[in-house]
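This part of the workshop introduces the protein records we will be handling. A record pairs a protein's sequence with a compact description of its fold. As an example, a complete record with its sequence and its structure tokens follows.

_____
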Amino acid sequence: MKISLKVGMILIASFLLLIGAACSNKKDAVQKVRLAEVTRSVFYTPQYVALEKGFFKEEGLDVELKTTWGGDKTMTALLSDAVDIALVGSETSIYVYAQGTSDPIINFAQLTQTDGTFLVSREKVDHFDWEMLKGTTFLGQRKGGMPQMVGEFVLKKHGIDPQQDLELIQNIDFGNIANSFASGTGDYVQLFEPTASVFEKEGKGYIIASFGEESGHVPYTTFMAKETYLKENEETVEKFVRALYKAQKWVEKSSGEEIAEVVQPYFEDSDIETLAVVIDRYKNQGSFAEKMTLTKEGWENLQAIMKEAGELPERVDYDKLVNTNIVEKVMAE
């Protein structure tokens, strides 16, 4: 009887240990997150910092990053559940909403808060004035995307009609714009970094203005997900945002060179010196959204830019496609 009791107690203890181990494993289990970025850009530096510095891993996340090259492809991946979270321009969530959906795409954290492109001239300009663009050929970005819409918004701000006052070229694929300019197309071009700085270094062009400084704050690139994903994976998304917030704060307090050394693996064709210059340029104009909160003012500015470009399908209330609860919770910790 005593032996049976002893065996029974051992079995119960073993069972409790197994349950404890299972609960512990479940608690410590790494959660996989499939993330799609619309393009590979130094503009997204804090995201790469979160990956390289291990901030996602610290939160128990295994983030799988893929570059989907284009807003339409990125949104298709998100809508088809090929990815969980997308980093893309907020305008895409409006396009999807306007088409009608029972599971809207929600912007939950902002990575960049200005445009990331620069005006590059073929010839060196000592005293630039936007009036100089009149009568010239301007090589812009893809129609309907944020870079082109911001570009037109800034031109109009300076009294230039993009359709009447210059020859606007916007039918060249994003990946070929820089090469087209380098081969002789256009007097001016709208470029992202580090291409703009590389061109300047090689004498192919000269940075003369920042579209980000001219257009003001706008939710240029944000992290977004389906509404159902946010509801079903709130804890995971909270960890995701916490890691990004750590990265944003680290970028804010670090030098361009320190940051460049961390993100260089994502830009193997760029040297540390060029990356540092580019990162400092973005930091100085306040491009990285340290607080990550997509504001109502920014949302309205976005729609004003879209409307000005003739690309706003319908005005959408801030509360319908923006959820700042998670970001605010993380920042309050």
